[in-house]
Amino acid sequence: MVGNDFVLPRPKMQAVKPAAMPRPAAALAQPVLADTPIDFETHAAEPTHRSPFRYSSDLFHRYSLGAFALLFLLVGSSAIQVSALYLSANIEFASAGSTSLRIANPQHGPNLVIANDKLASTLVAVTGQSLNLTIGTKTVPVAPDTIKSWLQVVNDKAKGVTYVHVNDSVIAKSLTSAAAPFVKAPTDQVTLTRPDGSSRVIATGHNGTKLGDTNKLAREIGKNVLGAKGMQMTLPLETLPFNAVTPTAFDKMLEVDVTTKQMWAYDKGQLTRQFPISAGAPETPTPIGQYKIYQKLAVQDMRGYNPNGTKYFQPHVRWVNYFLPGGYAVHGNYWRPLSYFGAINSSHGCVSLPDDQAKWVYDWAPIGTTVITHT
Q: In 10 A of CB 253, how many CB atoms?
């Protein structure tokens, strides 16, 4: 019996011997069969003795419907069981509560398991602890929101606990961000050789700094931060030495001597042009150092304050090349007589020259051009 269907085996066909009785001479001798149904598929009686293979095949054909039904039940029940496990896992994850922090699965690494009713006080203690970073000669405190960004939590309401995990990679990013103001590229020392063979340093070199490997420090912070006992850590800074170069190291370079009131333009180390200029007046001197042009304006109204506190306004200043924040630029000057250039420093810190010469500089020097000012 399979399901609600009953299958009965078919009886075997048997030949019945004829009775001993007279028969007509014209009749042929034929066996008389009993009332057994004939197998119309084979049109022949089945042999009494069958091979094992033929027997197995016959059983499969007779009970194929039941076999398929049994196979369907087995596969279906397995699928239902697997689906139930998958759905239950997803339902358990979806039902997990959350706090104001990000939700994440418990991970390998520093973890804290606490009762849900102690979660708020624990987070206040962890994020509010005193954590300071020493960077160079300065001490920088780590804000509570930064510490909070390092934590990931999973709230398991069913068990009444919360898992707090510390993400070391996020800590490493925070350390890199904190060190950014202290990371500086080195400043090349530039030595110039004049046509007469004399040489001089026109830009003093300065070492730079870079942040060392923060992975070890991030792991150490991650291991101890959940203890909420406070920490004092030192960020590893490394020195980057400056290079000694000549003007050939720059595609284009402007050299400004505020003492002789001259400016030179170099293209891949080759002197291209020389201009007389008017630099910053003694009360508002031009900054000395190595800079780069970062903004260009074809025309601009300039305004500011004089040393005595009065305001000044200069409209339509042409061919402006800013090289230092604070209003320092190489630009045209139409309000001074030509006798000022190369003779008198009169600006508020800018390097000025006649408009026609300023136009050449504006067209020749793209953003990124090095500007070196010296005495």
A: 26
Length of the chain as a residue count? 375
HEC secondary structure over the chain? CECCECCCCCCCCCEECCCCCCCCCCCCCCCEECCCCCCCCCCCCCCCCCCHHHHHHHHHHHCHHHHHHHHHHHHHHHHHHHHHHHHHHHHHHHCCECCCCEECCCCCCCEEEEEHHHHHHHHHHHHCCCEEEEECCEEEECCHHHHHHCEEEEEECCCCEEEEEECHHHHHHHHHHHHHHHCECCECEEEEECCCCCEEEEECCECEEEECCCHHHHHHHHHHHHHCCCEEEECCEEEECCCEECHHHCCEEEEEECCCCEEEEEECCEEEEEEECECECCCCCCCCEEEECCEEEEEEEEEEECCCCCEEEEEEEEEEEEEECCCEEEEECCCCCHHHCCCCCCECCCEEECHHHHHHHHHHCCCCCEEEEEC
Per-residue confidence band for 309, with pLDDT thresholds at 50, 70 and 90: very high
Coil, strand or helix at 19: coil
Q: Which residues contact 366 (CB under 8 A, 6 or more apart)?
A: 252, 293
Mean pLDDT along residues 278-303: 97
pLDDT at 157: 87
pTM above 0.70, yes or no: no
- The position carrying tokens 């419907």 is 65
Instruction: List pLDDT tens digits, range 258-271.
Output: 999 999 999 999 99
The distance of Cα 146 from the centroid of its chain, to the nearest Å, equals: 18
Q: How far apart are CA 190 and CA 245, in angstroms?
A: 5
Q: Is the pLDDT of residue 60 over 80?
A: no
Query: Position 103: which residue type?
Result: I
- What is the distance between the alpha carbons of residues 248 and 246, in angstroms, rounded to a whole number? 5
Are 355 and 319 a contacting pair, CB within 8 Å? yes
Residue range 311-329, pLDDT digits in tens: 999 999 999 999 999 999 9
Q: pLDDT tens across 289-298, in order?
A: 999 999 999 9
CA–CA separation, 243 and 190 (whole Å): 9
Angle (nearest 5°) at CA 67 between 61 and 68: 105
Pairing of β 138-141 and β 131-135:
antiparallel
